[in-house]
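Batch manifest, entry 17 of 40.
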Amino acid sequence: MAVDAGYGCTLPSSETVIDGSYQPLSRPVFIYVKATAAVRAKVRAFTRFYLAPENAGLVMQIGDVPLPTLSLRAARSHFDRVQTGTAFGGAGSLLGLRYGGL
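Output type: structure tokens
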């Protein structure tokens, strides 16, 4: 379904989801890992699997749009350093995505 956020109709596609123009019907999916849990082997294994670029095909199989490879690598690096706080934001964010105000 096309959406009109005030700039004309935009059709859904991987590109319009990633560039943020397919709003408000697309949004990022977040997971939050407590620093104290991030050191647990099972939590680390799951989170690293979740953020692995080579698993993007699994994301597409369920009809979702995976993050760009550079974004996944940045998020994984953020996690591997057990760095708290978000890596997601506006222009120039660590994940390199532009989702209006999210």
